[in-house]
Amino acid sequence: MSGRNPAVGASFADRLLAWFDVHGRSNLPWQTPRSAYRVWLSEVMLQQTQVATVIPYFERFIARFPDFASLAAADIDEVLALWAGLGYYARCRNLHAAAKQVASVYRGEMPNDLEAVQALPGVGRSTAAAILAQAYGARHAILDGNVKRVLARHAAIAGWPGTPKVADRLWAISEQKLPMTRLADYTQAIMDLGATLCTARAPACERCPVAADCIAHREARIGEFPSSKPAKARPYRRATLLVVENEQGAILIERRPPTGIWGGLWSLPVAAEGESADELLRQRHGIRIEPIDTLPAFRHAFTHFELELTPLLCTLIDDDAPTEVRERPDQRWLTISARSGDALAGIGLPAPVLGFLSRRYALNATNDTSTSDPCPAPSTASSSGSKPKASRVRRSPAR
Ligand code: SF4
């Protein structure tokens, strides 16, 4: 738009498409080639995550899983390891489940039907519409966070878009503005407008192609739209991160339950506030421990609460260790060296746990998740399926 607002005469869609032809993003990795599989994968990854963050993950995924069939056939551990660091791990489990569904029910082809796509795990109305519009040019309106912001400002829609009443109005506006042609480009264009010009904090109205009839801009009320979610205090929780070492200096990790925080990922054991670490480890892993030292706590913010994690160093004790101690599928022992960083990242540990281990063991982790083995081979971050020997109390490495 070269600093000039276009006239109001052209439709919203026409002005947006004219702007998109010059300024839109047309070289994103999922745009060429623009298959339904690639669009779906990118749309799921882009939920709550920015484009720049998604691109390297997308490229690793496509290299390893080029289509629905390969993703559907993969082990969930490998898929989770490639996802590690993107957060919101339920998306990853849904992604895998949806790939299996497409592979088995639709013979590996994304259906061209809004209801069918919306029925796939992890795919909501807006994501389904974006997939069909971009993959097949279907005429469906989208309403992701960026589009809500653009439309709420452009039409001055008051109220938090999370309420059904406000959302219904925005959906209606989004549908009214759809063009008859170029649906794939239009969908990308309105997302680009929200992501690059009509940003949350610093909208560039002087370059906006729809500024001429934007009510919030005309009335200098941009800050009012969209309304914020009514404030609610985020709960605060505490937990203990258990760093259990055996006599070889290997540390215990466990696979977390499939639901809840870090569902299905490998992690150091976590004892909830008030939960006995000794009891937890005895019941879940058949081992007894003796606490050695408490390290400084650190915090991690989840969407709905904040978690304060206090690492507790423990060692195995041999006094009344149960005789039935044995290898368990949800338990691994890792030997960590200074060069373990990348290997640890490949396991798919939650980011705060990986960060803690990196700080404690002075590791050089680059979060290169290309390692497919959920528990890499010995000598770096090695896994040992062998029974952990009960050991004498030993001092922990220096902090
Ligand atoms: S004029 Fe400003 S507030 Fe209105 S849609 Fe464009 S960038 Fe957003």
Which SSEs are present, and which pair or pack?
Blueprint: H1 12-23, H2 36-46, H3 51-64, H4 68-73, H5 76-83, H6 89-105, H7 114-118, H8 125-136, H9 145-154, H10 164-176, H11 183-197, H12 215-218, E1 236-245, E2 251-255, E3 266-267, E4 270-272, H13 277-285, E5 289-294, E6 298-301, E7 306-316, E8 331-335, H14 341-347, H15 351-360, E9 382-384
Parallel strand pairs: 1-7
Antiparallel strand pairs: 1-4, 2-3, 2-8, 5-7, 6-7, 8-9
Helix pairs in contact: 1-11, 2-3, 2-8, 5-6, 8-11, 9-10, 9-11
Structure characterization notes:
- With 399 residues, the chain is an alpha+beta fold.
- The protein folds into two domains: 12-224, Hypothetical protein, domain 2 (Endonuclease III, domain 1); 236-384, Nucleoside Triphosphate Pyrophosphohydrolase (Alpha-Beta Complex).
- The chain has 15 helices and nine strands.
- The strands form two sheets. Strands 1, 4, 5, 6 and 7 form a five-stranded mixed beta sheet that branches.
- Helix 8 packs across helix 11.
- The longest helix has 17 residues, at 89-105.
- It is elongated, with a radius of gyration of 25 Å.
- Residues 1-6, 321-326 and 365-399 have low confidence and may be disordered.
- The structure holds iron/sulfur cluster.
- Residues 150, 153-154, 197-198, 203, 205, 208, 210-211, 214, 216-217, 222 line the site of iron/sulfur cluster (SF4).
